[in-house]
What we know:
heterodimer; A: Rossmann fold; B: alpha/beta
Amino acid sequence: MKRHLISTGDLTRDDALLILDTAEELARVSERSIKKLPTLRGRTVVNLFYEDSTRTRISFEAAAKRLSADVINFSARGSSVSKGESLKDTALTLEAMGADAVVIRHGASGAPHRLATWVRGSVVNAGDGTHEHPTQALLDAFSIRRRLGRLEGLKVAIVGDVLHSRVARSNVLLLHTLGAEVTLVAPPTLLPVAVETWPCQISYDFDAVLPKADVVMMLRVQLERMNAAYFPSAREYSRRYGLDRDRFARLHDDAVVMHPGPMNRGMEISAEVADSARSTVVEQVANGVTVRMAVLYLLLGGSEPAIGGAE
Amino acid sequence: MVTFFMSDARNQARAVLEGPDIHRALTRIAHEILERTRGAESVVLIGIPTRGATLARRIAGRIAQFEGIEVPVGAIDVTMYRDDLRLRPARPLGRTELPPDGVDGRTVVLVDDVLYSGRTVRAALDALNDVGRPRAVQLATLVDRGHRELPIRADYVGKNLPTSKSEKVKVFLEETDGRDAVVLIKEDGR
C-alpha cells in the first residue's frame, strides 16, 4: 500500500498533480480568518527532527495544526537520542504513542526509508542527508505553477551546490515527472557521482543557461557540510555561480527566481535579487504550509493514503 | 418517460426527470426563494460542488431574469468537513468560492443536487460556520430522495423522489455532463 512520502521519484504525474491541485484549494483556506479545518481531528503527527531546522519544522507543525491534528515535536537535542538511543528504538517509542504520521528530518540519507519499515503510520521525509526533500520540491513546483501558470515545457535552471543538496535531487525528479526541462548548473566539484543518470541536463556555464531559463532556482552553498575545498574562494564562486544584479538583468522578463532558504545573501544570491518582485522566496514559505497540508491530508485524511510510494 | 438501459445488464436506469422537468423545478425554486425572502433581499446562493454549485448559478440566473436583481453566488466545498472521510481513500477537493462580500449577516441558501442522509448538509453547515456568520441558512435541493440520518429538512425541493436504499440517484447537468437528467439506477443484483 502507498502510504509514505520518501522520494519525489515515487510520485506519478497524477499523484503530483493531485497534491498541487489539493494545495491550490487549500491555499484559499489560508486567506480566510479561520484557517483551521477539522479533517485530521484525533490524528497524531510526530515531527522527528535529528537536524536543526526552523522553517521546515514550523511549516509542518503549522500544516498539521491547521488540519486539527495533534502535533508532537521531537528534536534530537536534549532527548534520549543524546543518551544514545537508536533510530529504531525511538521509532518504536513513537509507534507506542500512537503516531499516525512521522515527519522525519535526518542527517543520514535513507533514514526515512528505514523508519518506514519499522512504523505502522505514514512516514514523510522532511530531508534526509544529501538525498531528498520531497515537500520542498512540491512547494517549489507549486510556487512555479502559481507564478507562471504551468510546469509543462518550462526551462528550469537549478544552480549551485547540487552535491550537498537534497532539494536539487527531489526537484529534478519531480519537475521531470511534471514535464519541465531541468538544467543543473554547478562547478564540476559540486556535482554528485552519477549525476549523468538523472533526468536532466548539466552545464558548468551559468551565463550560457541564463537567457533561456524561465525559472532560476538558486541553491544554498552548504558551508556546514563542506569538509573539503570544493571551490577556490567564496568570492570566486560568487563571481561564476552567484545570481547578482548583472545576471538578473539578463534573465527574460517573465523569469522567476527561487531559493529554498536559508539564503547566504551576497554569496549565491545578491540581496537585491532576493528582494526583487520576481523572487518567490517569501511566497515559497507560505506555499510550504499549504503544500504540506495537502500531503498530510492525502496521506492521513482517508481510509488509506491517496498518494505516495509503495513501501 | 424514456428508459435507459446501461451497459451493465444488472443495473437498470430510468430517467425520472428530463431537461424540461429540471428547468421547471428550478424556475419554481427561484420563485419560492423570491417569495420567502421578500424579493431575495440579502440572499446569497451557495452551492455544494460540483453540481450544487452549477444549480446555484442557474437559480441565480432565473432570479436575475424574473426580478432583475443580481444575487451573489458562491460555492463551498465540504470534503474536509465530512464525517465519512475515513471510510474511503482521501478524495480530491472541490472549489470553494465565496462572494466578495462574504456571508456575514446574509440569508444563505445552500444548494445541492440530491438530499439523502443529510450528512453533506451537516458538513456544509460546519464549513459555513468557519467562513462567517449568516443571519439564516436555508436549503434548496433538486431531488429529495428520503432516508435522512440527521434532523435536516429542505426549504425548497425540486422533486420528492421515493427511493429504496439499494437504488442510486444520479444527476446529470448540461454544464458538466452534456445533458440534463435525473436518473434512478436500480441494482437488480441485490
